[in-house]
Amino acid sequence: MLFNYTDDKSEIGKDYFSLEEAAKKFSFTLKYLMNMVSKGKLKAFKIHDVWYTSEAWIHEHKREVVNLIDHEIEHSREYLKHLQKWVRSFR
Q1: H/E run at residue 30
Q2: What percent of the chain has pLDDT over 90?
Q3: Are the beta carbons of 23 and 33 closer than 8 angstroms?
Q4: CA dist., res. 68 & res. 3, Å (int)
Q5: What is the CATH number of the domain that holds 49?
Q6: In which domain, by residue range, is 69 found?
Q7: What are the tens digits of pLDDT across the range 14-53?
Q8: How many angstroms separate the CA atoms of 76 and 86, rounded?
């Protein structure tokens, strides 16, 4: 079971924490994390008014961002190589 719920207290498993806690722990803003959740780029679930995620899901999101950046850098390098064939120095 993911969590146990009683009327007076909600206990989330140790692997899950609120987005507010995640923002502090991983040096993100809460607004950024909420934006990523709303775009479907960060896994999370909601209980009442609080969103929860896991450390594994945060790391998965970070890997996706790094992969995207690496792809863009490589694409830029290829573009510059292509561009250099057509640009001559004035010297």
Answers
A1: helix 30-38
A2: 59
A3: yes
A4: 33
A5: 1.10.10
A6: 14-84
A7: 789 999 999 999 999 999 999 999 999 999 999 999 999 9
A8: 16
